[in-house]
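General statements about sequence and structure are easier to judge against a single worked case. In the encoding step, the backbone of a single protein was reduced to a row of integers, each denoting a local shape. The record that follows shows the chain in one-letter code together with its fold in token form.
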Amino acid sequence: MTDLTERTTIHDGMGAGAVMNPAIDEGMNPPAFSYDLVCIGPDGKEKWRETIHNLVTTVGKTDIVDKYFKGSAYTAAWYLGLKGTGTAVVGDTLASHAGWAEVTPYSGNRPAISFGTTSSGSNTATAVSYTINASATVAGAFLSSVNTGTSGTLYSAGDFASSRTVASGDTLNVTPTVSVS
């Protein structure tokens, strides 16, 4: 008698795929700031000009979600500060930014930003003007929710390509633009 053994292997499988829109896959970027800075000397002549883009801190992103999407208390007051040398990182807060320090070669508190009309996801504010009364090295700018101190939110900070010098008698004009891409 011949032994006939039949062997059968059963395979079961399923495949699926999706083509994602790259913009959706990467997610929407939080509103980010760019700053156009122009330093004017006491003689009225332009000394230097630079445009910088910033990073949005983790606490800044959290603030957006908390205020805009969750609906907690909100005030639209924002203030522009100047930073010294050192690199801003996403983990920075207004109370703790070990890589850099605020520089204040001007009198008074951080000036308020006055936004204009939003169009196509972008809003350019009126220029903030600093009357410089001391020599300093400025390496960037930052946006905070308070005009003085460290108790507020550090929304964002940006660095120049290289540090710049300001001197007593200079005027530093900074035009912030916020946009969503």
Observations:
- Residues 41 and 170 are 5 Å apart (CA to CA).
